[in-house]
Structures are given as C-alpha cells and as structure tokens.
What does this fold into?
Amino acid sequence: MEIPDKTINLIPVIIDGLLEKNGHDPILEDSQFTRQGNWYIALTVTDSEIKDCLSPGHPARKKVLAYLRDLHTEYRNTSNYVDILFEK
It folds into this structure.
C-alpha cells in the first residue's frame, strides 16, 4: 500500500499552457507534478479457523508478535531485497 504526497507545480502548468496555446509542444510536462510516497505493508495473520491471531485473547498471539518483530527487523536491516530471495 502506498500513501503518496502529490503536488501540482503551477508555473510549469502555466508555461506549457501558454506554449500549447501558441501552437508549440509542452516542454515541462515532467515538472508539472511531483510525487513522493511511502510504501506500507499491511499484514493480517489468521489461524486455520480464520480467527485473528493478533487479537489479545488468541493463544498464539505472543508467538506471532515475536515472529512479526523478527520479520520487521530483518526487513529494516536489508538493503538489497533481491539478494534475500536467493539466500534462502
């Protein structure tokens, strides 16, 4: 899942609009919008009966949380995710 920040840069939009109005091709199309985003990974963990393993009363909750913490640590410490695919 990504939550992007989008910005419209008005000056390039205006300049390209004026160019098009005068019969020229736009030259600043790539500068009209900027986009910065962060990717988020949402995980759900269920047991064989489709019960939420992260709910406070679930018997496997502690083990699942420990595994997810380890997974998070491994993810944060990995700089090249393609290399990890071939290590295992």
Q: What stands out?
A: The beta strands are 2-8, 33-39. DSSP finds three helices and two strands in the chain. The chain has a mean pLDDT of 80. The radius of gyration is 23 Å.
